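pinned: reference chain
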Amino acid sequence: MQLLEKLCNVHAPSGDESQMTSFLLNYINENKSKWLVKPKLIYGEQFHDSVILVFGKPRTAVFSHIDSIGFSVGYNNEIIKIGGPNVTEGDCLVGQDSQGYVEGNIYKDKSAIFIKFNRKIDRGTTLTFKVNFRETNDYIQSAYLDNRLGVYNCLQIAKNLKDGIIVFSTYEEHGGGSVGFLGKYIYETYNVRQALISDITWITSGVFHGKGCAISMRDSGIPRRSYVNRILKLLSKSKIDYQIEVESAGGSDGNQLQKSSYPWDWCFVGAAEDNVHSPNEKVHKKDIKSMYKVYNYLLPRL
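pinned: its structure tokens
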């Protein structure tokens, strides 16, 4: 879990993902020679801070967003949400501005939220929850398991992937922004139009800890049923634990693929967490293993 802990500690709220991009490029370049297939690495200004890995003759793309929820500093140390963080007074935030390191606690004043700090922080500075990574026999708990676990999963499956595309996307937590042009590039360049979404979902009344990762039949978006049924039929022949999710809210990179002008099929496949968008997100280790096994099983067969 050392790699996962490192990923959780990278500062990369939506719109400010460059540090995560640098981390990924360094990791990929250091490790790709050990992988079963050495991928083509695609990145650059035309892709903003996103990264694409192409293995062999791809049929399926795996999308995993590298950004997190966070905060922007406004006027007089007021903080403005990036995405939908779950804010509790006293939560510790960290960041960096032109004058140095920033660390302080959240406090509320009337209808606004602020950070306690001994000076004015530069306007526009991005802040994230301070990470306290905890591991027990059964659980991992930390800020930003959503979606550093999805990224971690992709880096694990990359080791043995023969044919496929892995996409590290941006801006997911604040309404999408990169998946449209990434999907366009992949469709037009490789004629790939089916996707799995490596992301983290929620523990709910129907999705439980330790019962396997969730295969989502719908959230706020509705993937094409024939594609989801195909995935479920394949998994029914495996011996991997998984849960079927049906929710009325939430979203992922899959929603942005569905809204694009290209005929993408997609399905969300990911572990579920408690304490969503807080410093204390919690995932069962069995569900992390299940997620990895499901992707390894599906990608050669789709």
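why pinned: The longest strand covers residues 100-109. The radius of gyration is 19 Å.
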